[in-house]
Design brief:
201 residues; mainly alpha; 0% strand
Length: 201
């Protein structure tokens, strides 16, 4: 049965806010995107908008969560024969094409590391979800003979994400860093014997 009434309207408005925020961050960057601009885009006051999220920090954490959900949808809908290496590098290229999301992820992620931060649980769950999804992809790649079978999937996924997050920070300071090429070399080292090594990205 479909949800009706105030709850459904509230959820729809929250989705509208997140979509507007995503579009603004993508087009003009995180630092130039204000709560007022997001509120204006959806025809609300800043106070009314923050009512749906609790705080500015929680709002932007929710924006990150939605961005990750969209990337995961893209990852899940890639052709079944797409290898792990290709999928991970596609995500890195997507991020590099929209630096605003990397700025947002770095800023919110650092501030929300404080357990008392309003967005702490959102960011924590977001990172856990990303690692878990990657671990499942590693397991699938191991079954397909792409990745070494002796590597613990969860630990390998954690290391992949640690490297991705670290490369993002370095890239913000030095745009000459070729994130796909560097990450590709790391992923090549995870390849199972005989799996072959694709050409550099």
């Amino acid at each position: 049965m479909a949800t009706r009434g105030p709850y459904a309207k509230g959820r729809a408005k929250r989705e509208e806010v997140l979509r507007a925020a995503l579009d603004l961050v993508a087009t003009q960057g995180y630092r130039r995107t204000t709560v007022k601009e997001i509120a204006d885009a959806v025809g609300m006051s800043q106070t009314a908008l923050l009512h749906y999220f609790g705080s500015k920090d929680a709002l932007f954490a929710a924006v990150l969560e939605r961005r990750d959900a969209e990337l995961q949808e893209e990852f899940d809908t890639t052709p079944p024969d797409t290898d792990l290496r290709t999928a991970v590098l596609a995500g890195i290229r997507s991020d590099a094409s929209r630096p605003g999301f990397i700025h947002l992820s770095t800023r919110v992620g650092a501030e929300a590391a404080d357990p008392d931060h309003l967005a702490h649980e959102i960011v924590r769950d977001r990172l856990r979800g990303s690692v878990d999804a990657t671990a499942r992809a590693v397991e699938a790649a191991q079954r397909d003979g792409q990745v070494r079978a002796d590597l613990p999937a969860q630990e390998t996924a954690t290391l992949i994400w640690a490297l991705v997050e670290g490369l993002r920070v370095l890239w913000l300071y030095d745009r000459s860093i070729d994130m796909p090429a560097l990450m590709g070399r790391v992923l090549d080292d995870l390849a199972a014997p005989g799996a072959g090594r694709p050409e550099a990205p």
